[in-house]
Design goal:
Chain lengths: 493, 493
Amino acid sequence: MAIEKEAQGGLEWRVSVPEGSAAEMELESKWIHRARTWLIQLVMTVVSKVTSFGKKAGKIGADDPRKVIHGVKVGIALTLVSLFYYTRPLYDGVGGCAMWAVMTVVVIFEFTVGGCLYKGINRAVATSTAGTLALGIHWIASKSGEKVEPIILSSSVFLLASAATFSRFIPNIKARFDYGITIFILTFSLVAVSGYRVDELLRLAQERICTIAIGVAICLVVCVLVRPVWAGQELHLLVSRNMDKLADSLECLVEDYFMKDKTVEGEVSYSQRSQGYKNVLNSKASEDSQANLARWEPGHGKFGFKHPWSQYLKVGAAMRYCAYCMEALNGCINSEIQAPEHMKRHLRDVCMRLSLGTSKVLKEISSSVKSMKESRSIQVLVEEMNNAVEELQVALRSLPKQLTQSPPPAAAAEAATIEKRHCVPAATISLMEVMPLFTAASLLIEVSERVGGVVDAVGTLATLACFEPIDHKKPSSSVVPRDEESVKPSQEV
Amino acid sequence: MAIEKEAQGGLEWRVSVPEGSAAEMELESKWIHRARTWLIQLVMTVVSKVTSFGKKAGKIGADDPRKVIHGVKVGIALTLVSLFYYTRPLYDGVGGCAMWAVMTVVVIFEFTVGGCLYKGINRAVATSTAGTLALGIHWIASKSGEKVEPIILSSSVFLLASAATFSRFIPNIKARFDYGITIFILTFSLVAVSGYRVDELLRLAQERICTIAIGVAICLVVCVLVRPVWAGQELHLLVSRNMDKLADSLECLVEDYFMKDKTVEGEVSYSQRSQGYKNVLNSKASEDSQANLARWEPGHGKFGFKHPWSQYLKVGAAMRYCAYCMEALNGCINSEIQAPEHMKRHLRDVCMRLSLGTSKVLKEISSSVKSMKESRSIQVLVEEMNNAVEELQVALRSLPKQLTQSPPPAAAAEAATIEKRHCVPAATISLMEVMPLFTAASLLIEVSERVGGVVDAVGTLATLACFEPIDHKKPSSSVVPRDEESVKPSQEV
C-alpha cells in the first residue's frame, strides 16, 4: 500500500512540474524510498519469522525440557570426544582414526538409552564382522593373482551389498538391524576396496575399532548418567497415559452428548479432553519404535531385562480398537441428526453410569500399569461396568414403553390423535427420532466391550511382567481403599 | 526323549555288568551319541531356520520385485564407485577422500528417488555450510592466541551441536532436514576439531565436496536410470489403491452381514477382502513419509514439480476417518448379538444398494485419481448414493410398521397375544432385537457421509493438481461410458 501511494505521488509530481532533472531526482528518491520500504519489510518478515520460530522452539522446550537437555547432552559428548583428541597430538589428518570417534558420537547419540544402545551395538558388531569378512576376502583375492583380484573384490562388494540391502526389507531385520546393515555394507566396501596390504589393514582395523569403542563409551556414559531417557519407561508411560486419555475422552463425550447446555463455559479445554482418544489412534508408530528400542535396554528402574515389551504393543492395539469405536461414537454425537432432548433424558443416567464405570475401569488399569501392582478393585469395577451395560440394555428395552407412557405435552397430543386414527402407538412414530440415541447407546456398549479386551491384555501383561500381587491379608494399603471408596458414591450418581 | 532313553540304558548296563572299563566305554559311546544327536538337532534347526528365512525373503521378493532390483541397484552403484577408485591409484589411505564417495553411496542410496534426493541434497548443502562456518570459526580462533583457541573451538562445537540437535525436535525441520542436521554437526565437529591450518583445510574441503558430489551423482544416475521408484507415484498409487480397498471392504462387510449363509465357499479370500480397510487404518506413517520425500522429486510422469502432495495427506485423512467408522461397522457385524434374519431381510436390499452405491463412488474417485482425469459420472454417483441414504432412512422409518404387519408365523402369534393383553404392538417387543440392525444401518449411513468427505478432498486435489477436465462435447471416451453403463444395471440390483 505504501508503494502504491508513492507511485501515485510520483505521478502527480511529474504532471505538475515536468522538468527533467527534478523528475530524475524524484525518480531516484522514489527508488530509494521503495528500496527502503522493501528492506524494512524484509527485515520485518525475517524478524517475525525468527520470533515465531523461536516461540515454537521455546514451546517445544517448555513442554518437554528433556529435549533441551538432550541437545546439551549431545554437546557435552561431542566436546568430550573432541577435547580428548584436541589435548593429544594424535590427530594427524582429517581421515585419521580420531575422526571415527567423532563420527560415532554424532551418529549414535539418540534421545533414548535404547536408541543409543541399538545403534552402538549395531555399529560395533557390524564393523567387526564386516571388517573380518572383508579381510578374509582381501586375503583370498591377493593370493589369486593381479588380474583376478579386482574381479573378486568388485563382485564380492556387489553381491554382499545387494544381498544386505535386500535383507533390509525383511520386517524383523529392518526393526532390529537396519542401522547395522548400513554399517556392514559401508565397512565391507571400505576395507575391500581400500587396496591395502592385509597387515596394514589389521592395524587400521584395530585403530578403528578402538576409536569406535571410545565413541560408543562416551555416548553411553553421557546418555545414561545425565538425565537418562529410557525407551522402555517412555513406552510404559505412553501406554498408561493413553488409557487415561481414553477414559477422559469417553466421560467427556458422553457428558457432552447428554448435557450439551451445561458445558458452555470452559468449552475449549473440555473439547480438548474429549478429543484425547485421537492421540491413541495415532500412537502406533511411536509405540512400535519404542518397543523396538526398549528391547536393547538393560534392566532399569522397575523393569527387568526381559520385560515383556511386546505385550505393551498388544495393549496398545486393544486400546486403538477401543478408540476406533469412540471415533464412531464421536461422529454420532456430533452428527446433525439428533434425538430430541426429552428422549435423551430417559437414557441419560444409565448412559452416564456406564461411561463413568467404563472410564473408571480404564483409570484403574492405567494406575495398575503405572504402579506395576495388580489391581485390587478391577474385578469389582469390571463387574460394575457389565452391570451398567445390562442396565442400559434394560433401559433400551423399556424405552419405547416409557416414550408411549410419558411423551412431552405437544408430542403427547399429536401421538394421541395418530394413535386413535391408525392404532399405531407413539413409539412407532418416534422410532426414527430415537435412532441416533440407539446408535450412540450401542456404540457405548461396544466401547465397554472393547475396554474388556484392554483389561484382558493388561491382565496378560501383569502376569508376564510379574506385577506386584495383591496382599489379600492386609487391605490397608493407601491406594486401593481410596479407590474402592471412590467407587461407592459413584453408584449413587 | 532320546537322551532320557540313553540315560536309562546306561544305568541298566552298569547295574548288570559293573566292570570299570566296560562302563567307561559305555559312558564314552553315550557321550558320543549325545553329541551326535545334539549336532544333528542343531544342524536341523539351522537348516529349517535358514529355509524358512529364505522362503520369507523369497516371498517378499516375489511380492514386490522392485525390492530385489533395489538391492541390485545398490550393488551396481557401489561397484561403480569402487571401480572408479580401484582403477585409479588415487586411493592413498583408508582415510583418503575416496572414502567419502563410498560412504556417500552407502548412506544416501534409498529405495525412492525422493529419498535419494532428500539425502543427497541435505548432505551436500549441510557439508558445504558446516564446512564454511567451521572454517570461519577456525580462522577466528587461530587469530586469538594459542590459549583461547581450544576454548573458542570447543565452545562453538558445544553450542552448535546442542542447538542443532534441539532443532531436530521441531516437526517441520525434522521432516525436511533431519539428515542434513546430522551431517552439519558431523562436518562442523570434524573440521573445527581437526587442528589443520586454514589453507590445508580449504584443499581438503574442496576434495571432500568433490568426492561427495561424485558419490551423489553416481547414486542419482543409478537410482533414476535403473527402474526408478518415485515416492510421489508410490503415494499416488497408495492413495488410490486404498480407496479401492475401502470400497471392496464396504461391499464385502455389508454383503457378509445380510447374506451370511451365501458366503461359505471361498470364505478366506472373502474375509481378506472385507478386512482391506485395516490397511487404510495403518497407512498414515507411510503416507506421511512418502509425501515428505515426494517434495524433493522433480516432475516425473504425470506429476509436475509443484504437485500438491500435501493434499494427498488430506485425502488419506478423510479415508481413515471413513475407515474408523467401518471398524465400528465391522465390530457391529461380528458382534454376538444379532438381529434375527427375518428383520434383516426388510433392510437387505436397500442396505446393499447403499453399500454398492458408496463403493461405486469410491471406485469412481479412485479411478479418477489413478488416471488423473476429472470424473464424468461422480456427481451422478454421489446423487445416487445420497438417494440410497434417503431410501434407507425411509425404510428404517417404515420398519416398525412392516414388522407389525408381517412378522414370521411364530412371532406373529406371540405378538398377537401380547398385543391383545397390553395394547402394545409387536414393534415395541422386537425393538431390542432390531437394535443391532439399526446400529449397523446408522453406521452405514455415517460411512456414506464420510465418503462424501473423501469425495470433497479428491475434488480439491483435482483442482490443485489440474486433473484433465471433462470434455463436455465428446462423451465418446473409452472409460466413462463404460462406467455409466455399468452403473445402470446396478440400479436394478
